[in-house]
Amino acid sequence: MISKELTVESIHLAMDRIKVGILAHAEELNARDGAIGDGDLGVTLSRSVEIFSATPPEGDDVGMVLLGYAKMLTGTVGSTYGTLAATGLMAAAKLTKGRTAVPWSEVSLLLAAAGAAMAARGKSHLGDKTVLDVIEAARSATENIKEPEKLASAAAAAVKATTAEFAAKPFKQGRARIWGEKGLGMEDPGMVAFQYIVESLLP
What we know:
Blueprint: H1 8-36, H2 41-54, H3 62-76, H4 80-96, H5 107-122, H6 131-142, H7 148-166, H8 189-199
Helix pairs in contact: 1-2, 1-8, 2-3, 3-4, 4-5, 5-6, 6-7, 6-8, 7-8
């Protein structure tokens, strides 16, 4: 049964489902990343979810548990994607620290905080064809939604559509920028990874 609010239990359950989704697509994500970068995105994410499931943070404080997951990332994953994900989790943790339950309607606020923190850390902007664009799409699509099933469905649809939309645009961040017009038609691996993460949470 899905929790009526965002709790530590629902976070742990989400991480378990994300693990399944990431491991199922790890090789694909490596291949996508290899086409424009280091080719280790699938490895990075697989390592992260394995660590999460092995020693999940304890306690009933939503913020502290999110911070615990963030610290796991910073301590074990050295990639840019992992660093940005940890930054986003830390931003969400600040808004939820000291709370044992958070209304689902606040998820969009947590996504907004995460996206802003990640943009500042990565010195990137909306429209650069990065994971920030799909996080913003999820934020916009989930605004004021109170039911977790509807929230997941709205986020997944928005993220998938945005990933496809940005495939037709050039890369403006990271090593992928060197592709120029050759990058047109290529989906950003970080966007695709976030799409799979959100889709793993669908009811």
